[in-house]
Amino acid sequence: MAEGIKSVGVIGGGQMGSGIAQLAAVAGIDVWLLDLDSNALTSATKSITNSVQRFVSKGQLSQEVATNAIKRLRCTSNLEDLRSADVIIEAIVESEDVKKKLFSELDRIAKPSAILASNTSSISITRIASATSRPHQVIGMHFMNPPPIMKLVEIVRGADTSNETFITIKALSERFAKIVVCSQDYPGFIVNRILMPMINEAFFTLYTGVATKEDIDTGMKLGTNQPMGPLELADFIGLDVCLSIMKVLHVGLGDSKYRPCPLLVQYVDAGRLGRKRGIGVYTYG
Ligand code: NAD
């Protein structure tokens, strides 16, 4: 059960992994944050420190909890450091081949009782689990962006995920003060099955000259009471992440209605990946 979880490994120190590491550290769990890129680890440490301090300034966290959380966080580029983790949460690039390769290595180094969770936005948990010898201990733990703020965790059960694994990860999510929904393992799960076609349609709306990007976003923000317009949201998520998810929906559901908009493809080809690159649909900085 989640109370027994003393140590968590988080793999990928980008926007999602850093936020997940922060949640675990604030919940009183020792965290190893792993990234192959040492610059990513430096930025992650900076962003976690700034973020917990913001919670303290707003009176949502005591200084003591924040200071202890930072002490609990350790960074590494060596997978072997995750050997004793009770739960390992993967948040690396959204590529099935890369994730499978990582899970197969994790299966080799992680202790037999460890649960291996993926923060994938859309890739099949059943197929990721097939790269391991412990598919009953593999599960989707899909946080929303940014993890410290967004209330939801979408838990995805692969074909062989055990009840025990599900119960432990649900309890761990609740320890992070999240609300849980449970999805079966089909492309895009619940949230992205519905959200990404909307974002893709916003790109088609721009691509076919129906309206300007500003009017598309304002129309959807004020017309449907959303905090961000779909194009602004795509920049926030990352256009590369949106494109990967659309490809998974297109291939996995086999319906042309999910084909990625050529404009989205072109932006990604041009390196316009959104906020993280300073340019996407909009320009930042
Ligand atoms: P990101 O590009 O910000 O970060 C990914 C990090 O993983 C990078 O720092 C990179 O150096 C590292 N990395 C890549 N391959 C690695 C490997 N083999 N081993 C160790 N580190 C590696 O990406 P992100 O937006 O944080 O997304 C990460 C995952 O979370 C993806 O699966 C994505 O679909 C999912 N996700 C993203 C969002 C979002 O809004 N961006 C929301 C929910 C889930």
TrEMBL record:
Q: In which pathway does it act?
A: Lipid metabolism; fatty acid beta-oxidation
What UniProt keywords are attached to this protein's entry? Answer: NAD, Oxidoreductase
Q: Output one GO MF annotation.
A: enoyl-CoA hydratase activity
Annotated positions binding NAD(+): 12-17, 35, 94, 99, 121, 145, 276
Looking up Pfam families in the UniProt record yields: 3HCDH, 3HCDH_N
UniProt: CoA binding residues: 51, 58, 121
Important for catalytic activity, annotated site positions: 142
Please state which protein family the record places this protein in: In the central section; belongs to the 3-hydroxyacyl-CoA dehydrogenase family.
Q: Which reaction does it catalyse?
A: a 4-saturated-(3S)-3-hydroxyacyl-CoA = a (3E)-enoyl-CoA + H2O; a (3S)-3-hydroxyacyl-CoA = a (2E)-enoyl-CoA + H2O
Q: Which InterPro entries match?
A: 3-OHacyl-CoA_DH, 3-OHacyl-CoA_DH_CS, 3-OHacyl-CoA_DH_NAD-bd, 3HC_DH_C, 6-PGluconate_DH-like_C_sf, 6PGD_dom2, NAD(P)-bd_dom_sf
Q: Name one GO biological process term.
A: fatty acid metabolic process
Q: Which residues form the 3-hydroxyacyl-CoA dehydrogenase NAD binding domain?
A: 8-185
This chain belongs to the protein called: 3-hydroxyacyl-CoA dehydrogenase
Enumerate the spans annotated as 3-hydroxyacyl-CoA dehydrogenase C-terminal domain.
188-284
